[in-house]
User: Fold this.
Amino acid sequence: MKSPEFPADEANRIKTLKSLEILDTAAEDRFDRLTRMSKRLFDVPIALVSLVDENRQWFKSCVGLDVSETPRDISFCGHAILGNDIFVIPNATEDQRFADNPLVADDPSIRFYAGCPLRSENGSMLGTLCIIDRVPRELSADDIEALKDLASMVENELEAERLATLDELTKISNRRGFMQLAEYYLNFCIRQQVPATLAFFDLNNFKPINDNYGHAEGDRALVAFAEQMKNSFRQTDLYARLGGDEFVVLFPSTSKQSAAVVMEKFCNTIDKYNHEASRGYDITFSYGIVEFDPVKHDSIESLLSESDALMYECKKQKRESERSRISAGST
Assistant:
């Protein structure tokens, strides 16, 4: 077995890693979402976000293993952070560096390993997004690009530790966080030739809630809506508060037809919440839903713009319907 060497910038690398204040923190869905996607996409039993400090590799996200860390001197990721490209071991039992490694000889019986280094803004390699199998295998060129795409998403989440990308009130992504990750999601869907659909939300009659019940109650309504989004959408979906009473969700690997079914269920969820909360007002919303077309939509901005326009058309129709209902009732 060969233990990994130390990178030339080890002191600065460790300083950068610790400055994120992420080591030994609790699991977070924004990282777990990406390891789940990796596990499913590559059909492997194990996927990790592994951060390498002085003496160990610690797993910020871990799917398929019951441990939170392993010693650095037996880690595959310690080798991966020495380079700039994906580090692939097709069959560890045939590689002199790993054949007698405890992680190969014993549980989890690693045979295949592929780790994409996670680069910080200053160039230091902090760890990897890695996938592991218990049988030998190879990665295709498309697989390599897909793993790089997912690793880029992890890098953005690590950068979010330094940049404010969460909405302070609702604790979901804000516009900046959404825009950063959405571009990677769309590029990933293009590479994998799978659909993606975006829904743009705007709460109806939100100003009267503030006017009649106070801004504190308005804030509670926004938080409640965000909580229902968390509870309703899949763990791989990307949702955010764009600002004010505007929200958005991006459904990867989802057609418009399938997303419409999810949205119908979400409408029912909000109706149920309103009935149970009984706060004297209802939280209602209008939305526009658009399937991503790489030819038509050259950026996440263009996709947002189209869904925004559809949302306002929906809101206009609801207003006209409400006026007609009131007019009919007064005659």
Summary: The chain has a mean pLDDT of 92. The chain has ten helices and ten strands.
